[in-house]
């Protein structure tokens, strides 16, 4: 772990892998230091925001190092909640993904369904989780050269090594492979986001 | 329960409290009042809790119909504000609690100093909260919609605390000239070359007109990366209010309260807590200097 400066009220902890970053996030989150306002997981990082009235950056640095999970982190955390999302695999960019993966349109859906995904971090919009494959080796998919001005809500899409589902209509540059009718985000729900960091996600095919 | 009616929202009038911190795991930024000191002061002046919801008005022009007996205060950006009762105009002093003795109209003229005014009303705005806050997150589209002409906003119950007796609150108007912001190194300061670091703290930057609650763009020289980081993509990482992210063309943007939770542009420096409210009041074209500070301030 490297601790990087981030102004006067945060530190950025950087790791050499997503697995280690997620493991540290899980440990720090469950140990809950009273001076930590928020932990924001990223692809290789955890942003640690502190309340300067409660603690100092030096003290937090010591605490973070003292509360690192054991060295031998094996794989992604498996303790998160599990959900299954039904998808109609009829996205406009299926052919693009099929070409990158060197397979048929049907095989894109089959591989996507056969893969278990875990949410690494959230970004872009409320409830938009960046999902990574747990142990499948899927070729990274390039972003579209130009973003679409509107992507419909529930669109299941791929970019780089990630899979994401658009929680609401928004612009977007990811490759669309299908669509779900499940509600990813509802601010009036007890748990507004269907997917949060650590959630394990499987997809299943629906027809029509 | 009393209410206020929006006669004219001006350019943009938003409801804000102090935001919804701690929800980054849901992908939700803290949002909240841009000028937090102005927000707290406006609430204190009318005897509200500092967290009460108030109106953040961009560039002035807001017109509100208030019923008799409504306490209000205006802080933040200065404009020639007036309260009109039965055709009689009275000047509204900044940072001063006033009470309407009959039905009246409050009008904020065009802003003369600063950019965003806060209008607090005694009782606070009792609009529905979303995820524990009455703040409008303009990026995520969460919270109360921007105010429109004809909107009627209920006020909350009379607070337990009285309107404080204060003849004079010594607060300067937002600065007109060069504004200095304290910065400390950001996590990706080592992605930028020595010349960029020199430029960062010696340039007189210009506040871009393309600035909003998501971020304030600074115009000036390009901040170049060290050769081995050119063209490299940064894996998404957590962002803060005040993070100065640099886009691939070298242009810095200081993130505001409605910033995305994570981002993929490297952060060269971060504006310190004590300077953050000044960001809210930067006018398009206003010069800005960034000063490297150490310690707590």
Descriptive report:
- The complex is a heterodimer of chains A (208) and B (297).
- Chain A has a four-stranded antiparallel beta sheet, covered by helices on one side. In chain A, strands 5-13-6-7 form a four-stranded mixed beta sheet, covered by helices on one side. In chain A, strands 10-9-12 form a three-stranded antiparallel beta sheet.
- Chain A is an alpha+beta fold and 208 residues long.
- Chain A has helices spanning 18-31, 57-66, 94-101, 105-114; strands spanning 2-5, 10-14, 36-41, 45-50, 82-87, 117-122, 129-133, 148-151, 155-159, 162-165, 170-172, 175-179, 200-205.
- Chain B folds into two domains: 3-154, no CATH class; 179-292, Beta Barrel (Cyclophilin).
- A seven-stranded mixed beta barrel of chain B has the order 12-19-16-17-14-13-20. In chain B, strands 7-6-9-4-1-11 form a six-stranded antiparallel beta sheet, with no helix packed on it.
- The longest helix of chain B has 10 residues, at 36-45.
- In chain B, strand 16 (243-246) and strand 17 (252-255) form a beta hairpin.
- Chain B has 297 residues and is mostly beta strands.
């Amino acid at each position: 772990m490297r601790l990087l400066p981030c102004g006067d009220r945060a530190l950025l902890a950087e790791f050499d892998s997503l697995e280690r970053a997620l493991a540290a996030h899980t440990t720090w989150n469950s140990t809950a230091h009273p001076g930590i306002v928020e932990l924001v997981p990223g692809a290789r990082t955890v942003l640690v925001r502190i309340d300067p009235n409660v603690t100092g950056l030096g003290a937090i640095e010591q605490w973070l190092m003292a509360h690192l999970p054991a060295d031998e982190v094996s794989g992604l955390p498996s303790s998160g909640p599990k959900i299954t999302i039904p998808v109609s695999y009829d996205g406009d960019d299926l052919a693009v993904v099929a070409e990158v993966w060197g397979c048929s349109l049907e095989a894109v859906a089959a591989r996507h369904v056969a893969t278990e995904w875990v949410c690494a971090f959230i970004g872009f919009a409320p409830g938009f989780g960046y999902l990574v494959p747990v142990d499948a080796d899927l070729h990274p998919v390039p972003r579209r050269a130009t973003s679409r001005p509107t992507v419909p809500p529930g669109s299941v899409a791929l970019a780089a090594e990630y899979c994401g589902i658009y929680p609401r209509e928004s612009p977007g540059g990811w490759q669309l492979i299908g669509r779900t009718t499940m509600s990813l985000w509802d601010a009036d729900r007890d748990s507004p986001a269907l997917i949060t960091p650590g959630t394990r996600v499987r997809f299943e095919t629906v027809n029509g | 329960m009393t209410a206020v009616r929006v006669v004219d929202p001006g350019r943009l009038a938003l409801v804000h409290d102090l935001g919804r911190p701690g929800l980054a795991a849901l992908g939700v930024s803290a949002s909240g009042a841009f000028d937090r000191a102005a927000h707290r002061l406006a609430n204190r002046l009318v005897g509200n809790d500092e967290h009460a919801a108030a109106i953040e008005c961009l560039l002035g022009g807001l017109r509100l119909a208030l019923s008799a007996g409504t306490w209000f205060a205006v802080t933040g950006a200065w404009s020639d504000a007036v309260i009109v009762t039965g055709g009689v105009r009275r000047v509204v002093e900044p940072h001063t609690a006033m009470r309407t003795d009959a039905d009246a109209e409050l009008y904020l003229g065009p802003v003369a100093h600063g950019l965003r005014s806060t209008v607090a009303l005694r009782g606070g705005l009792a609009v529905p909260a979303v995820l524990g806050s009455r703040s409008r997150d303009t990026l995520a589209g969460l919270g109360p919609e921007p105010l429109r002409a004809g909107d009627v906003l209920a006020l909350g119950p009379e607070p337990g605390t009285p309107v404080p007796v204060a003849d004079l609150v010594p607060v300067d108007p937002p600065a007109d000239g060069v504004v200095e912001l304290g910065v400390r190194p950001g996590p990706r300061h080592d992605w930028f070359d020595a010349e960029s670091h020199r430029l960062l703290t010696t340039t007189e930057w210009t506040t871009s007109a393309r600035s909003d609650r998501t971020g304030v763009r600074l115009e000036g020289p390009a901040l170049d990366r060290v050769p081995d980081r050119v063209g490299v993509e940064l894996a998404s990482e957590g962002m803060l209010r005040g993070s100065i992210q640099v886009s691939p063309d070298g242009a810095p943007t200081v993130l505001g309260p409605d910033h995305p939770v994570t981002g993929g542009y490297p952060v060269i420096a971060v504006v310190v807590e004590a300077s953050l409210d000044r960001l809210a009041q930067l006018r398009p074209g206003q010069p800005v200097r960034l000063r490297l500070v150490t310690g707590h301030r």
